[in-house]
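Hi all, long-time lurker, first post. I run a small reading group and we've been trying to get comfortable going from sequence to structure in the token notation. Rather than ask abstract questions, I figured I'd post a concrete chain and ask someone more experienced to write out its structure so we can walk through it together at our next meeting. Sequence below, copied exactly:
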Amino acid sequence: MADSVAALPANPGASTGRRLALFRAPVTGPNQGTQIDTIVNRVRHLVRSNAWAGAAVDKWVASEIGTGVQAKPVNGSPEHKVRATRTWKRWIKVSDAQAVLDFYGQQALASREVKEAGEAFARFRWRRASDGLPVPLQIQLIESEQCPRHYNAYAPNGNVIQEGIEINKRGQAAAYWMYRAHPGDTSALTIDAGTLVRIPADEIMHIYHPLRAGQLRGIPDMASVIALIFGLDRVQDSVMERQAVANLHAGWFTRPPESANVGPLGEARLTDDADGTPIAGMEPGTMSELPPGWGVTFNDPPGAGTDFPEYMRFNLLGFAARVGIPYEVLTGDLRTITDRALKLLLLEFHRLIEMSLWLYTIPMFCGRVRDEWWNMAVLSGALSVPDYYDDPDFYRETLWVPQGWPNSHPVQDVRADVQAIRGGISSRTKVTLAKGEDPEEIDAEQAEDNKRADKLGLSYDSDGRRAQAESALQIKEIIP
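-- Answer (accepted) --
Happy to help. Here is the structure in token form:
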């Protein structure tokens, strides 16, 4: 009996039986070339024309960047930190080579490009001292399409060019081959947009999320749900049109053969319109008698269906899961979720955001901008640091402070923070930084507030000195 039963495959996923006979997965490497061009074009169209795709990008950027990721110097004397911070704040206002955004706006735009197109490029633009910038450096953001994925060739120096990226013998990016203008920008009439230019890799920042070892270019998160959201958009449009037709209330008279020239309105007839159609007056509660043999039939078109909302929700759950945003955050639909469950979802969402921020956005973009800013600030004399080149990493070390997450339960969350500080498992500095604030600025503000209150003879519960005095008094009353 056992001999007549076919042996099961060691790995059912590799079976070629009836269930998986049509599942023929192609053998693909991490670099797919021109296939991604179509995906990027479709995703960009969906982001601009589909409410859910556009909302997904907006909410991701708002959560990852918000009002900006701030940079704080770590090492050096207090005076040195003040000078560096003052120069940095002046520079971020003019960091954009196009003079449109500040550096925080460029962070948001880079994050948006990565979410939408799978990647973004940024180029260092060094300026002259006569340009009048605080530091002679600006950043130019470049869209993915300007570095053609279909460009595969050999460079004059013998390096291989794969998907627009020139690779050296070590397998590292040596240069990027880019168009002078966006190939889809029809207004660039004075620019030769068809000519490729070689840009050394040390001038380019390439921001993307590698998903496979050896992957050279980024892939949009929406690549696997393009068909889903496009089909869902068509279904929703069809249902909307069906509802519009359903709202057209119409009716038909059925008349007996012998009444060909007799109308059914009788005494209810008021007048005729321009083409001779009789018009009857109707008021709430009116009941009219039809002649013998006459009848009325009204249209009864189908509605949207009782399962349409659940159908939309089910498909949007899959879309939201792939783009990394909770369904409740994407749609604002909180009907079926409790506060505790929502908080658990937000914690997982925050972990995804922080992973993207600390593994990709900060090291690939923010950190490289900050390092080059230091180089140019010292080289141009904007900052005087005599021993900078002895150990540049000492001065470049930066504390990046993203915008903090708002409290979901303010009283409970603040109480938990206070207990964590008092219990020694956290510090005021860490709690303050987690909220996106600068602890040194808060300390300075509190000291200034206390000084002004003392001068005016005022006393507030927020004064920590008063809380310490009251605590000591309570202890003295308990232990004489």
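A couple of things your group might point at:
The chain has 13 helices and 14 strands.
The two ends are 91 Å apart (CA to CA).
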